[in-house]
Description:
One of its GO terms (molecular function) is fluoride channel activity. The chain is mainly alpha-helical. It folds into two domains: 2-92, no CATH class; 95-123.
Amino acid sequence: MKEVILVIVGGGLGSGLRYWIGKSLNPIFENFYLGTFLVNILGCLLIGLVFGWSLKNQTMAATYTALLATGFCGGFTTFSAFGLELFLLIKEGSYLPFIGYTLLSVVLGILAVLCGIWLMRSF
Length: 123
């Protein structure tokens, strides 16, 4: 139960920060979402730091992983989890699943957005 609370707290903090950064930076350029872009890259960096620390020291408690990786990074951006999963596929030498997961995630994600918009316009 403690880890669930940490995920909720971390997720709330990450989501709040993502919202603030997006609101502050997205309006700067007309056709480029600077805030979202930076959040995605920073989220990937942060989850890499958390995962790297855990691998290097093998001392990171599950509570810190719940708070930082699952909670904060998950609330900040799910793109960070996607980036980590892609890294793990490359590290394992799973190149075909890497390509499939990347292409399917991006293409189906865009199609799902279009489908959702279409469904809402239809009703």
